[in-house]
Design a protein that fits this description.
The complex is a heterodimer of chains A (208) and B (227).
Chain A lengths: L13 E3 L6 E3 L19 H21 L3 E5 L2 E5 L1 H11 L2 H29 L7 H14 L5 H12 L1 E2 L3 E5 L1 H19 L3 H9 L4
Antiparallel strand pairs in A: 1-2, 3-4, 3-6, 5-6
Helix pairs in contact in A: 1-3, 1-6, 2-3, 3-4, 3-6
Chain B lengths: L17 E3 L6 E3 L8 E3 L6 E4 L4 H21 L3 E5 L2 E5 L1 H10 L3 H29 L8 H11 L5 H15 L4 E4 L1 H19 L2 H12 L13
Chain lengths: 208, 227
């Protein structure tokens, strides 16, 4: 029927090395070229992805609700959360800053968490979508993750720059560390996800 | 004068090597490519690998430049801000110090890791591998270093720091007088050089070359350069 049947590495007992990409029999245990352990799929991929994902959701709540920096000056102290910072800049008319912070700190983490959850569901077969869309989603989550660190770096830079004697100082608030945790955990989550699970799912369901 | 042979594929131990797509796991033959070409999966269309032009010399050159700019970016402040008679300077190390000074030691270490250690590991390990590979050699521990290189890649976030820098400037610009220093331009150049160095060489090419250099082939391939 098919002119050229596609052969899959896992069916042949072959595994491509996670580190160097060399294809070798999974039985050998270790990649002959770089020495990394060989697995057909990333070990416990779904469980790890979900665990990191749940961790990041848990950290996302304090990251949004607690103050990300404390501004203390002559007129007493002031604490600002990420969202209140966005609102302040929007009202001040600094639209670019407001948009950058909103995208990097609010939109990207939420979209990333949603995308990873969607991929996990798809990999367990509870959700289906065209593989092109899922491939795109996976690549975007991989690419975009690190850019959320922007707000943490902004706090660090402001803390370094704004220490004008008794006039004004900026110190990082508890949300800064939580936010860094969100970024790191979503990055780890995306790294432990194995996109081949999506294809395994597709192959398992018989196509008419 | 042609010092470089265009269209040379990188050497490889296995003549008829097969490759499995990292995305859909389909096994297919891995053709050797001319420079500038890419191989795509026949099943799902994902990029398998690319033969990037002048890969080794690009990786070497950009990583040497990156190390020099890294030195400059750490020795000079990025900017000096002065307001109300006081002035402060900004540099990566000062940033981390400010964070640890305010009690957030963990955050300070994270910043040091993302902006100082990971970029240094990335560039240093790439130079350690690619410069000897230009002469077909591998220095001791090159395989371990190659694994480090791949692992440190997503954690080097200097370009994100640069965006944070721009955002902070937009925040502070109206509050104080700001002078840019050499450190900032070095940082910009460093980000460009890191991008150039890591985009210069395909991971598979690096590993294929390392494999040959670490352990000269038992069944040697005819040398392409001959003739």
């Amino acid at each position: 029927m098919k002119s050229e049947p596609v052969r899959f590495a896992a069916d042949l007992g072959l595994a491509s090395c996670h580190t160097c990409g060399k294809l070798s029999p999974v039985k050998s245990g270790h990649c002959p070229r770089c020495g990394s352990g060989l697995h057909l799929r990333k070990p416990d991929s779904l469980a790890r992805t979900l665990a990191f994902l749940l961790g990041s959701i848990a950290f996302y709540i304090p990251a949004m609700s607690l103050p990300v920096m404390n501004v203390s000056g002559l007129g007493g102290g002031e604490q600002s959360t990420i969202l209140s910072g966005v609102v302040t800049f929007w009202e001040m008319g600094s639209y670019p800053v407001a948009i950058i912070i909103f995208t990097a700190s609010v939109l990207i983490p939420i979209l990333k968490i949603a995308a990873l959850a969607w991929l996990c569901l798809a990999a367990t077969g509870r959700f289906s979508g065209t593989h092109k869309k899922m491939a795109l989603t996976y690549h975007i989550t991989e690419l975009v993750g690190r850019w959320s660190m922007v707000d943490v770096f902004v706090v660090a830079i402001l803390a370094c720059l704004v220490r004008l004697g008794n006039l004004m100082t900026i110190t990082p608030g508890p949300a800064a560390l939580s936010f860094a945790a969100v970024v790191i955990l979503t990055m780890l989550s995306a790294m432990s996800f194995d996109p081949r699970l999506l294809w395994d799912q597709r192959r398992a369901t018989p196509t008419p | 004068m042609r010092r470089h042979h265009h269209g040379l594929p990188w050497p490889r131990r296995d003549r008829d090597e097969q490759v499995a797509c990292e995305f859909c796991d389909a096994v297919q033959p891995a053709p050797r490519l001319r420079e500038g070409e890419g191989a795509y999966c026949g099943n799902c269309g994902e990029l398998l690998y690319q033969n990037r032009p002048r890969s080794l010399s690009r990786a070497t050159g950009f990583s040497i430049a990156a190390l020099i700019f890294m030195l400059l970016a750490h020795s000079f402040p990025f900017l000096t801000m002065s307001a109300a008679g006081a002035s402060t300077k900004l540099s990566l190390i000062r940033c981390a110090r400010a964070l640890s000074h305010d009690g957030d030691v963990l955050l300070s270490w994270l910043c040091i890791f993302f902006t100082i250690i990971a970029p240094l590991a990335l560039v240093g390990s790439l130079l350690y591998m690619s410069a000897p590979l230009l002469y077909g050699r591998a220095l001791p521990g090159a395989l371990q270093i190659a694994r480090w290189f791949q692992r440190s890649e997503p954690w080097a976030m200097l370009e994100v720091f640069l965006l944070g820098f721009i955002v902070s400037l937009l925040k502070l610009g109206h509050l104080a007088e700001i002078h840019f220093n050499i450190g900032l331009w070095s940082l910009v150049a460093l980000v460009i050089c890191i991008a150039g160095a890591t985009a210069g060489i395909d991971r598979r090419e690096l590993w294929d070359r390392l494999e040959l250099a670490v352990d000269p082939a038992p069944k040697p391939e005819p040398v392409d350069r001959a003739g």
